[in-house]
Amino acid sequence: SLKMLLILLFLAHYIADYTHLSTVWMLNAKKIGKPLFPIFIHALVHSLLMTIIIIFFTDWNILILYLLIIQLLSHFIIDTLKGKMNIWFPSIQNPANKFHWYVFGFDQYLHILVIILMNYLILKQ
Fold it and tell me: b/e string for 73-98 if b means 16 or more Cβ within 10 A?
């Protein structure tokens, strides 16, 4: 069902962000928004995991490629900008600063919106 798809897409997001699939190389780049290549590879991991899941819930079609690109670009842009914010506003790197959590929460909120959009586009087809 599409509820299960949504749950699995959120699980893929968790696995790609909070397990060994996020390497030190990627995390160091994400923290400051550069270099871009490790952030791109991190976004690609997200995209590939989600694409594998989506394939089980829909027939192979061009939409899957669009969803992979949506996930790849949005994740790359969101993570790069969050890293740049850490440089522009160094105090938000400190978890004791409440704005650290506002930025972290907003970052996750944006990723969630993209996942919901992906689920909606699959439902709509």
Answer: ebbbebbbebbebbeeeeebeeeeee
